[in-house]
From TrEMBL:
Keywords for this protein: ATP-binding, Glycerol metabolism, Kinase, Nucleotide-binding, Transferase
Carbohydrate kinase FGGY C-terminal domain segment(s): 256-444
Record EC number: 2.7.1.30
Domain Carbohydrate kinase FGGY N-terminal: 3-246
Protein name, entry field: Glycerol kinase
Enzymatic reactions: glycerol + ATP = sn-glycerol 3-phosphate + ADP + H(+)
Binding positions for glycerol per the UniProt entry: 81-82, 129, 239-240
Organism for this UniProt entry: Halosegnis rubeus
Amino acid sequence: MQYVAAIDQGTTGTRCLLVSHGGAVVGQAYETHEQQYPKPGWVEHDPTVLWENTKTVVTDALADAGLAATDLVAIGVTNQRETTVLWDGATGEPIHDAIVWQDRRTTERIEQLEPEWIRDRTGLEPDAYFSASKLEWLLNEVEGARERAEAGELRFGTVDSWLVSKLTGEHVTDVTNASRTMLFDIHDLRWDGDLLAEFDVPREVLPTVVPSSDPESYGAASEDGFLGAEIPVAGVLGDQQAALFGQTCFEAGSAKNTYGTGSFLLVNTGPEPVESDHGLLTTVAFQRAGEEPRYALEGSIFTTGAAIEWLEDVSLVENPAEMETLARSVDSTDGVYVVPAFSGLGAPHWDGRARGTILGLTRGTGREHIARATLESIGFQTHDVLAAMAADTGENIDRLRVDGGAVQNDLLCELQATIADCTIARPAVDETTALGAAYAAGLAVGYWEDLDALREQHRTERVFRPDETVDMDGRYARWNEAVDRARDWAREEN
């Protein structure tokens, strides 16, 4: 028996799954890492810790399954997207902590840009979320970085590039991650010279862009490395595209939503990119070696699961597991609305200066009302994106595959189905992000024959349908009013 290892390096932790040919998880391990907030609106990770934790979880997952590294046929990698790392090409050491996708330090820089031409080439709404302005900041603010970059001494990458470079020594990225940098032309599949000039990025720092599922381009972990065996790295996908792949959304029109730190709703649009007129992003969904890419429309919601974590941080809930019980203890929010814009608002609003807001508080408001309003806010934000997708594609999404830690909350799924008026399908294997990386790697090396083999493996654990007795239209209208109150709040921030 042989297996595929999937490394899932996320915003709050790193996971490894070992996946069998039948799609079963036979071993796993997880490690959290520290979130660093050096200034208000800044978020950083230590890249060295990300790598050390990666080694730990792969080793521990093998031990959990009672397997050796030689039992692995391939390794897949998926990662938090947009997070930006700059490192020394000779020593492999980072020259600064990674700037995380949530970081807002470059908001003013983004506001100087003319958005239309950037959207036309990248499919992205200019925002501090993406890698370009983060890399520009590193080159300008870290002493000597620009000179060293121009001399070819430094390497830039999103977290996939960083981990692959440590695993195999190759400086590459896949098309899905490249499409999130705001430096990449998603139509021609190449780094864009005008964007590199706009952000003053030397070509010398850029990784080579390759397909997501590819048996050759990523290299192999060597026998001299921590695994002690030569294992090909054969699949890389940004985390949200990996979840789309893991949910087997291979056909145009199929959609998934991942509820993690934020929520990211993607609909497969097929071989042609669909431009959005309603605040969505056009992005590369995946590409297999020797094939044309597939594209997606994406609604990036910055804060959903992180809002639940915040309730725990400020002691409004004991732990996330208490959230459902507390929220079910009341029939309504009693007029309370939560807009969890801790990192600004993403799709379809794109307001980097919005901030978190709670409205409708009275003396009778309890933590149970705030808990329920927080769950409803996740549903409302998803409804915003689904409405934008329907407007862009002309088709309503009536079935949404969901994944991520928050969807274990049945009340959230029930509310989501009713608020968005669509069927919610929760998979039997919840870690679909890691599963997508495993699928991409396994397909590349022939472990799975084709996409049909993966479709046959997909299992739905539970389906949630809208409650037709509940009228959410009035609450949704008030939600939009609440969003308006939260917008453009952080005007005094840098």
